Amino acid sequence: MLRFLTAGESHGRALVTILEGIPSGLTIDFTALTAELRRRQGGYGRGRRMVIESDRADAISGVRHGVTTGAPIALMIPNKDWENWQRTMAVEAPPTEETPGHDRPTVTRPRPGHVDLAGVVKYDHTDIRNVLERASARETASRVAVGTICRQFLEQLGVVIVSHVINIGSASIGTPLAVTFEDVQAIPDDSELHCVSREVETAMKKVIDAAKEAGDTVGGSFEVIVRGLPVGLGSHVQWDRKLDGRLAQALMSIQAIKGVGIGIGPRVADLPGSKIHDEILPLTGTTTHPEVPVSRPTNNAGGLEAGITNGEDLRVTGYMKPIATLMKPLRSVDLNTLQLSPAAIERSDTCAVTAAAVVGEAMVAIVLADAMLEKFGGDSMPEILDNLARYRARTAARFTHEKA
Q: What's the pTM value of the predicted model, to 2 decimals?
């Protein structure tokens, strides 16, 4: 069983994450890990902190000579902005026009749509900063670091994860299931919003520019696609073992994600069963799951049926609301006076959907790595690879009808 726990906040010295459950013998590519952390920081519409930080993760336990030992892995991601926060947090004077936004040492005006009000009530704080910094999406750097290790584990088992942005506000590619795994793989590295269409990406950038000009923010959606999963991950026998539920919880835990869809998602409520369910036909041509030689003309289920993978591409969509910090803030109240005041302004992004897609990939990788270990568990990579190979061979033998 995989477990990970992250300590640290946006204004702290570092984020420290413990990942337990990765088997021994996995070679970690730290160059690729750093590249994933930089992907999380990219995307059109990001804010000023992405200029300050240049993330890297250092393994301080559980990895020796670049290879996992089977012990818990501790990762540390420094916060370069920490020095700036030492000066900011040390200021004791009340806020003035000269110390706006994130330079205020004490935050008392909650932002609608953020943790601010509920958090200070729950934890009995008077300064909203005590909750908002931990709730910040800065924490997702740790998730991406952990998710990259899980991704590298999955790649050894033949599993590949990609993602793309479906829409930013009103600018959309349309029906995401029309986009193939190969289409997403072909998105060029210089795509600022990681969209399969250059034309739609241009429209998306205009939506972001308009929101920024208006002092507003904008959300959107992204899809994670996974190829190479064996049939049979997850379970239908108990509610908390269903893989679709585990994936939904993982994506919903990402900051600002307000909905998750699998396959065609909410559209299942609009169409009859004859238009929804993916027919099972004799195999013609190739398949992504050779151990079960059937074909599916559609993949509306998104690779999951009854909480179990069916061998088709796994397709999961995350729906992200606009970020809560507006440069032209909404109405709020000052918690010290309960008088009407504009909400606080913190350093923020206009749009972070592209970054959320990278975090989405990481969270999907974590859940799938856990499911793989659950099904093919072992303490070392050779043991797990052998278990998977024997499972595939045994399953394929069931469907072999050739006479001896």
A: 0.92
